[in-house]
Amino acid sequence: MTQFSEAFTGVTFIKKPSRNAVSDNAAVEQTVAEILSAVHEKGDAAVREYSRKFDQSDIAIFEVSKDERHAALAALDPQSCADTQFAIDNVRAFAEAQFATMLPLEVETLPGVHMGHRVIPIERVGCYVPGGRYPLLSAPVMTIVPAKVAGVKEVIACLPPNAHSAMIAGCHLSGADRIFRIGGAQAIAAMAFGTSTVPRVDKIVGPGNAFVNEAKRQVFGPIGIDQLAGPSEIYVLADETGNAEMIATDLLAQAEHDVRTRVGLITTDALLAKAVEAGVTRQLTDLSTAETAGAAWCDYGEIALCEDEAAMIAYSDYIAAEHLQVHTADAHGLANKLRNYGSLFIGELASVVYSDKCSGTNHTLPTMAAGRYTGGLWVGTYVKIATHQWLTPQGVRQVAPPAARQAATEGMEGHRRAAQMRLDRLSS
To answer: What InterPro entries does this protein's entry cite (predicted)?
Structure first.
């Protein structure tokens, strides 16, 4: 994928990214391949070796015990505990509401031809919980809680051994059945292949760094994954009613995640574009995370000026931003015209920060234009929709003749016999 500053009808750029968001991944691919191979072959011994190498950790026992879980919970200050529970309650409530829309199906499509599907929870899921630049207390909530709502039998959580103890408390409160102090690509390998300590899972979810992402890509196939997540993104759509200071604040709030965060404004108003650019520069002078946020803005920040609303919508759908805020006079009206995004924040009162932390929608979302074809992590990520059918004699008499004829036309004699046999038995 190329950088999104190429020529686009009706769009001029007040500020362009100075770097390409996609870099050469060859070195990461090779390193990850070696890690996966070693863990597949040596199991816990390789995990322990890579934990020492990458995390400077020499933990004898990877799994967090019940006593350690309770100690982490006891160490969590009361307000943080209450806030984490608030986030859990909101994420659970929204996941339950979503799950209620996923119903089993039974339908008679033709007389005697019955079809349907079941909603079946995945048996065992692995949730990667990143340690990250900060202790992201909401990270375990977003991956573990929907899994439990979906009815996953066993949820395994892996987090870096040097992660803040509050992260262990978050995994515990969110409902993780087992928690392991294993980070990076070696954690993905352990969950994908299984070791004497870590059980093999059926699907791996959760964001991580480039090595975690690449490991998920390489194990995909026998093991399911949620998605391949790149650096975080936020774009804001705004017209002349947009508040420049608020928009600048929101852009920098997301930019402090990582130096590779993609942040952008797409607007129809030139004065607002200039005001937001000035506002970002001004706020960086006293932002405590300016070293990270400023680098992200310098390298990946973008301001696109559009000639009209149609151009703004077209360019936004082309970007397909992970987080998309709408700050326009008719925010709901514009929102209804948008197609491609990870999660949408309608009106200036709806902030990405609320979703990042505690409001209830999931913050594990598609990046790098994946919003063109998929949504984010949700309760449906943890279930399979598995179809079935059953036929009465009346149904066989309807579908067997065309099935047998089609098989004969294709030269598939075995198929023809299987279709015809049931019809012949009914005739006799």
So the answer is: Ald_DH/histidinol_DH, Histidinol_DH_monofunct, Hstdl_DH
Task: For residue 321, report the phi and psi dihedrals to the nearest 5 degrees.
Answer: -65, 150
Active site residue 322: yes
11-21+231-360 to CATH, choices 3.30.300.30, 3.40.50.1980, 3.20.20.100, 3.40.50.300: 3.40.50.1980
pLDDT for res 363: 95
- Asked if residue 323 belongs to a known ligand binding site, the reply is yes
**Is 50 one of the annotated binding-site residues?**
no
Q: 115 Cβ partners below 8 Å, 6+ apart?
A: 105, 106, 107, 108, 109, 387, 388, 389
Give me the catalytic one of 322, 327, 348, 363.
322
* CA of residue 374 relative to chain centroid, distance: 10
- pLDDT at residue 89 in the model: 98
Query: Is the distance from CB of 385 to CB of 119 less than 8 angstroms?
Result: yes
3-class DSSP assignment, residue 262: strand
Domains 11-21+231-360 and 26-227 are alike in CATH topology: yes
Q: b vs e for 139-157, b when ≥16 Cβ sit within 10 Å of the residue's Cβ? A: bbbbbbbbbbbbebebbbb
pLDDT for the residue numbered 8: 79
Check residue 133 and give its pLDDT: 62
Q: In the prediction, which pLDDT does 134 show?
A: 63
Q: What is the mean pLDDT of each successive set of 10 residues along the chain, which is 428 residues long?
A: 58 91 81 98 97 93 97 96 97 98 98 98 97 79 98 98 94 98 97 98 95 97 94 97 98 95 97 98 98 97 97 97 98 98 98 96 95 97 98 97 98 98 94
| Active-site residue, selected from the candidate residues 164, 172, 323, 327 | 323
Is 318 labelled as part of a ligand binding site? no
CATH of domain 26-227: 3.40.50.1980
Q: Provide the pLDDT for residue 229.
A: 85
Q: Does residue 68 have a known ligand-binding role?
A: no
Task: Give the pLDDT score at 228.
Answer: 92
Closest residue by Cα to residue 275 from 303, 252, 299: 303
389 is in an annotated binding site: no
Q: What is the pTM of this model?
A: 0.93
Query: Is 323 part of the annotated catalytic residue set?
Result: yes
- On whether 327 is known to bind a ligand per the annotation, the reply is no
Handedness of CA 293, 334, 380, 358 (dihedral sign): positive
